[in-house]
Amino acid sequence: MAVLLGILIMAGILYAVSHHEESSAHTPKNVHGAVTVNDPEHNEAADRTDRKDSPPPTAKLAIIIDDIGSTDSGLDKMLAIKEHLTFAVMPFLENTERDAVNAYENGIEVIVHLPMEANGKISWVGPRPIMSGMTGDEIRKLTAEAISSVPYAVGANIHMGSRASSDKSVMSAVLDVLKKKNMYFVDSRTTRHPIGKEVADEQGVLCYDRDVFLDGKQPKSFVVKRLKQAGEIALKKGFAVAIGHAGIEGGDVTAEAITDMLPEFGEENIQLVFVSELDQR
User: Fold this and answer.
1) Are 127 and 104 in contact (CB under 8 A)?
2) Contacts with 82 (C-beta within 8 Å, 6 or more apart), sequence order
């Protein structure tokens, strides 16, 4: 009986040792052979460290400079910025082609700054503007000719246009042409009730709304403030579109403000991009 009891005790000991070794063999170890523990608190701390070390996602800011082709004021300083800017070039002017080519050759994106009928007595809308009284065929023909007059154009936005750009039939005809040419549209939102984005979405044309106007015969401090506002919008929604001007509306002042803001944009991970680089499709 004593012998049998001894045998049973030894068998139990051998089983316990064997089971422990088997469990140890399947326990995860690190590269140094130490046992690793699935510690939720340890993993959470590691995740927090990873998140802290990872840079925040880049916010994109597209800055359009309107009225190119109508004036040389501010062009040299704009070109000296050496960042991704978009120049909106007026069609049908003496310097239209020259300024579009110059912008393209200096690494600037080019779009057409379409003159459109405004409310009230606006003294300078530009040559051959799109008028709300035109037929759809007349608008499509004029839009196509405006695009043809601006070399390297990949999109379009609005010059003036407070009346014509709120007319759905006008915008539909303009967007017909842009769709055929695979060009994007920026609704400058120069009217109280802008409809460009709505009509563009209906017709399948890539369209962005202007978020901020930067200048308008204002001091540099004002333009800097507006650039900060544009940056905040970009950080909040991932991107923003701001519009400044060449000439007396902005010119050198706007160029200097953009230059001054570049370090802050860099610190906040806000990237200046062409409008075409906003496309998320």
Assistant:
1) no
2) 107
Question: Could you report the per-residue pLDDT of 26-71, keeping only the tens digit for each?
Answer: 444 443 333 333 444 444 444 444 444 556 678 999 999 999 999 9
For the segment 234-278, what is each residue's pLDDT rounded down to a tens digit? 999 999 999 999 999 999 999 999 999 999 999 999 999 999 999
| Spatial separation of the C-alpha atoms in residues 200 and 205, rounded to whole Å | 5
Give the per-residue pLDDT at 54. Answer: 55
Q: Contact 250/223 with Cβ under 8 angstroms? A: yes
> In the structure encoding, which two tokens stand for residue 148, read together?
């043809």
The two structure tokens encoding residue 200: 């563009």
